[in-house]
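dumping the sequnces here before i forget
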Amino acid sequence: MAARSANKIGEKRSTSIILGVSAWLVGLIFFFPVFWMVLNGFKTELDANASPKLFFTPTLEQYRAVTAQTQGLLNFNEAMMNSIVIVGVSTLIVMILAVPAAYALSVRPVKKARDVLFFFISTKFLPIVAGILPLWIIARNFGLLNTRTVLIILYMGLNLPLAVWMLRSFFKEVPVALIEASQIDGANLRQQMVRVMLPIVAPGLAATALLVVIFAWNEYFLAVQLNPVNASTIPIWITSNVSTRGNFLAKLSAASTLATLPVVIAGWVAQKRMIRGLAMGAVK
Amino acid sequence: MEQEVSTELASREVAKKARLRRERWMRRLPLLPALIFTILVTQIPFVMNLWYSLTEWKITPPTPRAFTGFDNYATLFTNTFFRSAVWITVVMTVGAVALSVLLGLGIALLLDREFFGRGLVRTLLITPFLIMPVVAGLIWKTQIFHSLYGVLNWLITAVGFQPVEFVGKMPTWSIITVLVWQWTPFMMLIILAGLQSRPTDILEAARVDGASAYTLFRHITLPGLRPYLELGALLGSIYLIQVFDHIDVITGGGPGSTNVPYFVYQRSIGGGWDFGQAAAYSTVVVAASLVIATIGLRLLGGLLPKEEI
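..and the predicted 3d for all of it:
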């Protein structure tokens, strides 16, 4: 479609080249900090803590250093394990709760579905920081400070409204006629879900789960307030690589590359669907 | 005989009502677990806050908790640090949202045409949005803004100027720059979705009638994009008004960079340990958020087609 519109404008060849080159230039500028981070991760501290260098002898020294097991410090393996468990479990439960909720807001809507949907979204407006004091006190009273459980529960609270919102927009695309036809054929609710709806909404489910994973994986505020000691996640491990003594630039870069890689690759793969789910949630 | 008929009718009526009620609950059932969980997790903390805010409760120095009514609220707005935090929140949110929407619009227009490597450029562009905020803040601070090793200052000195202490001299705008870097891709993708759902037939017709590129943009493209621009700005504001991570790693809440969330944090478990006072600030923040949410949701309500639900 874009090709058609570009050609039909009949823009001059020179204009077309200039616009294409500008797009590339903007893309490269936006990507540069990421490129620079990855590059610095392969430098020695001496090379990194100097006037910016593009050419150097690459080394894996920093990757070895940041993943090494050090007594008494937060280890990469530990943080990775905590992040995987917390993000994995919370995402799984979010999806288990969000799928039926989104169904009840789209396919066979409850009364006042619109108000319920708005309630879910309105919780995203509440500033988390304003709730941190009660959350900290509740967590302390239940002995949940520095546990994985507290972050699993809170990440569910953060992401459930978003998941309901996104899933609803994907469910809206299932033709009602198709569901009614399957009902006439005597399919029960479970069969309707698995045989009729699942194939249609599967890509949407994947995109939603991915966005939930990204937000949970990147979350720092709650993790650092409630889990600063044990059960620390990857974002906390990142900040632990900033030291006040000695040079840390190359090590920080290597650590940052490790921490962001999984989410960046997943985001690249699912870029189109992810944003469609967010945008269409409101517009379509 | 007549009576029998009427009782039968009545019992049928009852059975029908019961069936309807059961039907309604069957519809509600799938919704309830998610709804109840969300209500519990998101509303309880704020109710507790409301109660805390009416008490005198300091951890350092430890004082017994006492009910003091609205005392905590009396001094709120006379605190100059709070007023400055409010101002910084406004500048940061409005600045970052406006800039990322404008940049996102420009870039989306550049990408809405066929050129070599279009998919790759889009992939490069969305990457900043996927980067962990803590990482984004630290990388910009130590490798882009830094006065000795930063790429930006290397560029500035290369063209003959003095290096600038970006983070020290202009903390608010340093943070805004990082926020814009992360959120422009998000805005761009939403606007791109809007551009690609434009009615091509109207565009064609206007073109045949000899409309200029500017006229097309001003009178067809831009009005059509409005819901997408509004949606982008709304979603951006929800997240950007609460920015914490970037501030924490870039300046640690130094002068000129403490927004309201960071201020509230500093008053409570971030070092102030004055729980009563902090809770009062939180309550004010929640009240303000509710006002913004009401406006935002009204906007969103305009975006959602009414007949759909």
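The mean pLDDT of chain A is 85.
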